[in-house]
Amino acid sequence: MTQLETTEATWRRPVTTRGRLLRVAALAAAVLLFCTTVAYHRDWFDLGVYYGTVHHWMSTGAIYDYLVPGSRYGFTYPPFAAVCMLPMALIDWQSAVAFTLLLNAAAAAVILRWTVGPVVRRQGWTPWYALSLAGCAFALLEPVRDTVSFGQVNLLLLALVLADARLLSAGGRASRYAGIGIGLAAAIKLTPAVFIAHLLLTGRPRAAATATAVALGATGLAAWIAPDASRVYWTDALWNTDRVGSLAYVSNQSWQGLLARVSEPHEPSRAVWALGVVVLLVVWAVRVRKSTAAGDHAGGFALTGILACLISPVTWVHHLVWLVPALVLLAAAGLRTPDGPDRRRLLTWAIALPFVLSSSVVWLWSHDSSGIDGFLGGNTYVWIALGLFFALPLRSASAEDRRPALPGP
Predict the structure, then answer these.
(1) Is the pLDDT of residue 358 over 90?
(2) Element (H, E) at 219
(3) pLDDT at 402 over 50
(4) CA–CA separation, 83 vs 248, rounded Å?
(5) If DSSP states are collapsed to H, E and C, what string results for 283-337?
(6) Maximum distance among all alpha carbons in the chain?
(7) Residues of the chain by 3-state class (helix, strand, coil), percent to 5
(8) Cβ proximity of 101 and 144 under 8 Å
(9) Which of 60, 72, 260, 371 registers the highest number of CB atoms within 10 A of its CB?
(10) How many CA atoms lie within 13 A of 296 on its CB side?
(11) Residue 146 buriedness (CB in 10 A; 0-12 / 13-18 / 19+)
(12) Is the per-residue pLDDT at 130 higher than 80?
């Protein structure tokens, strides 16, 4: 029996409810200890940007001239995001941190329910126990840890997009509201706008129109509330890459980030970047069309999340929460594969990739990403995204997958 099979057998052994509670409590305590004392903690830096921006806006009427004291970092999101964050002007810093933690916890619970939940039901596992274990593994992922400790919005945006996937999966009258989540996410941050292209590509013009209308409506609302800030954003701040940091910084795990590190100290070739983006878009279109034709709508959404990470000029490590649906699909593919080499291979990857994404390995090259070791190790998360993009197993949906309760695998 292989080590993987032994591990599987161990976790399948029946235990009492009390034993399961103790196991979950011990694992959760270990994860909490790791996240608060061992792993990098970002000291709510991005939340500080949001908080400072909102208060600066209230006192001066400007959004994009705010910079964190002693740095060159300022607010980089569209004005509608600042509108959504206005309630922070009414609370103190500690309350803002607490509220952000609650929102991220709620978003994480929703994401796990909608992605891991279908796998749990299909395997016949005890829901609360399996989801608790999955939640611990989820919390260890560096993109999730960074999203929480930066006070970022990535989990909330992922939950909004998955909400639309759920509505489309439900069909019927519920699907009429699909597109609202994607539209709101795209108005808050531009990257999720790629899911509008996904809706068009997969033959969902109504949902695409809804998403576009919501995004434009939210953007128009922000322009009405803060016309000067909107003008500054769309004509200046959006194009000012100095506001987000160096493209070659090791945290930028996108195709552009890889090229910037290879080219450093010179500027990366725009032609090479554009060519790579075109190739990625073609592969995405082909794979998404095939997955949609086969009924694997979850696979199409997962591929689009990976695409967003790869083609965005800046994909910080915390943005990689968009890989989570693909990681779940990879595990689901392994679990549904009959015993044999293919099952062992898929489950090995399903365990290894989250482990690497929890390791913070790219930071070993944070000061020097030159050489072959820097090329391979400093771009580890890019390689994971590319591997999932080209090799994520897709499948035909069974009758169970078409149930209205889920957008997941």
Answers:
(1) yes
(2) helix 205-225
(3) no
(4) 31
(5) HHHHHHHHHHHCCCHHHHHHHHHHHHHHHCCCCCHHHHHHHHHHHHHHHHHHHHC
(6) 67
(7) 75, 0, 25
(8) no
(9) 260
(10) 22
(11) buried
(12) yes
Q: Which helix (H) or strand (E) segment is 55 a member of? A: helix 45-60
State whether the Cα torsion 249-255-258-263 is positive or negative: negative
Query: What is each CA distance from 269 to 19, 66, 123, 255, 273, in whole angstroms?
Result: 57, 31, 48, 12, 6
For residue 230, which amino acid is it?
Answer: S
* 76: CB partners within 8 A, 6+ apart: 237, 243, 244
pTM score over 0.90: yes
Angle at 371 between CA 71 and CA 354, to 5 degrees: 70
Tokens 């998955």 locate to 162
DSSP string of 4-25, one letter each residue: HHHHHHHHHS---HHHHHHHHH
Q: Burial code of 41-69, b = ≥16 C-beta within 10 A, e = fewer? A: ebebebbbbbbbbbebbeeeeebbebbee
Please state the separation of Cα 215 from the chain's center in Å. Answer: 19
Distance CA 65, CA 214 (A): 27
284/276 Cα distance (integer angstroms): 12
pLDDT tens figures, 35-83: 888 777 888 999 999 999 999 999 888 899 888 888 788 899 999 999 9
Amino acid at 218: A
Q: Amino acid identity of 92?
A: D
Cα 30 from Cα 136, distance rounded (Å): 9
Angle (CA) 331 336 341, round 5°? 85
> Interior CA angle at 18 toward 16 and 19, to 5°?
65
| 405 C-beta neighbours (distance < 10 Å), count | 14
Higher pLDDT, 155 or 370: 155
Nearest to 40, CA basis, from 261, 245, 324, 251: 251
Residue 406: pLDDT over 50: no
Inter-residue contact 313 to 247 (CB < 8 Å): yes
Tally the residues of the chain: 409
Q: Is the dihedral of CA 259, 264, 270, 271 positive or negative?
A: negative
| 212 phi/psi in degrees, rounded to 5 | -65, -45
Listing DSSP states for 341-368 in one string gives: HHHHHHHHHHHHHHHHHTTTGGGGGSS-
**How is residue 72 annotated by DSSP?**
S
Q: Give the three-state DSSP class for 67.
A: strand
What integer best gives the mean pLDDT of the chain? Answer: 90
